[in-house]
Amino acid sequence: MVKVHKLIPSIDWSISSREMQDILNSTHDAIVAVNRKGIIILFNTAAERLLGIKAWKAYGEYARDIIPGSRLHCVLETGLPELNQKQETGGICILTNRVPVRDENNRIVGAVAVFRDMTEIRQLAEEMTCIKEMKNLLEAIINTSQDVISVVDDQGKIIMVNPAYTRVIGMRKDEVVGKPPTVDIRQGESVHLRVMQSMEAVRGVPLKVGPANREVIINAAPLIIDGRLRGSVAMAHDVSEFKFLSAEPNSMQALMSQEQARYTFHDIVASGPVMKAAVENACRAALTPATVLLAGESGTGKELFAHAIHNGSQRKYRRFIRVNCAAIPETLLESELFGYEAGAFSGALKSGKKGLLEEADGGTLFLDEIGEIPSSIQVKLLRVLQEREITRVGGVRTFELDLRIIAATNKNLEDEVRKGNFRKDLFYRISVFPITIPPLRQRCGDLPVLCRHLLTKLNREYGRSVQGIAETAANLLDGYNWPGNVRELENVLGRALINMHFNEYIILPVHLPPLASGKEPGVERECADGSVQTLAEIMEEAERRAITAAVARCGGNRAEAACCLNISLRTLYYKLEKYGLSRGSPE
Q: Whole-prediction pTM value?
């Protein structure tokens, strides 16, 4: 406004520059200027509209006389600006800034007021408040969603993830925001990049994400605003939640039964002659309707065989019901197996209930731990095997059944028969086609193949990429007796993976939990050709394992290993050479 003052002589109240007048009249804000006497010398079109006063009436008049509430004369007196002040005039409320105008000598030569109707400002404030509230609402919706949500901008950078992302994917917000959308992907391609390239939504894309290789299903769509691509948004659903929702809702029923057989003979690892023979017998049994008895120590894979026999039979498209006889209380076992009629006992359903034997009609019933069935139920089970019919608890009607029974036990049923704990007639009924599954210590040659198979499974479960087992660690595993069989082997390998860092890919002895060295006394080791090792061979094998373990435990320091073994260093070198360990052992 100093420039305006320079264009206007102090005794001239009109605008001398038509161009400057047009500029001031085109502004949206109202502008009123007075000279040093407080007389209006500038009154633009916006001021006319806002104050309801024509410019030609305002020029030459004192501002305090024609504009209610004007304080331009106060600014002239004090020389101080008044900023963001409310002013009531003409029934409206305006927001004004009043400032003095000074010349080159810093003398006050006038004052200027710039003001706007607060209605417009209030509307803008309300719009801003509404936008802010809407933003907060959208953020709250996104943050409370149980589905994983991520948003990428048009530059291909992640700009937003919700708390469900951290919970499911396993990565913090600060680890991904500002990074490319591939930062969390372990297997598959980024759906964000795909939709931004194709400009089309995608649905049901399976990916593995995060440090744990979590399986998710992704839906994604591009963000297009006013015809312009502004980024993309993706929603991920945890596959494990779908599996949980599709699980058997009744926990007791889920414990007792399972309606589908998951495994086939392809899932059974068998490279040694003893295990191959067991698998061949099971394949033959699958082709017949005969009752099968699976015998073997705990952890040898009896349930795996039962699944495979069902899937290899003509009943593979029918139900496969699994009953763990040891897991169901004795008081409930009879009613769960045979069912009951209405009112059979206190607490019974009014409509009665089918038993698991009826549920398995047309399919296969797997009785796991059959040696735990009490004698009272053994009699009724014998009738099922003989007559193929049942009578419910509290009922008189008989129901004919067409089912195949596969039984399994880790007990020696012949000994149980001699002790009187198991009925002889039932034993002969269930052992029509007996199959003995060998323990792991007798499965010569199967251990390396089993380890590879189990590592593949554990890598998927733990989200790891372990590639194999070092020779020294493999020797320790091979020298262990495995009383818990395959189940124990899986447990040991799982613990080894937990002990490993994410950048380690080979299992070393240090990763393994403590294992007893050597076999139990008196345990025979079957070889690939079916023969039994001689005492000298067993001693040499034990000596080889002991030397390997000692060298590995001492970090390759042979002098220290010799001291631990209580032999001379020269003897250690001789034995390393004898067993072919000198070349591959660490220095």
A: 0.48
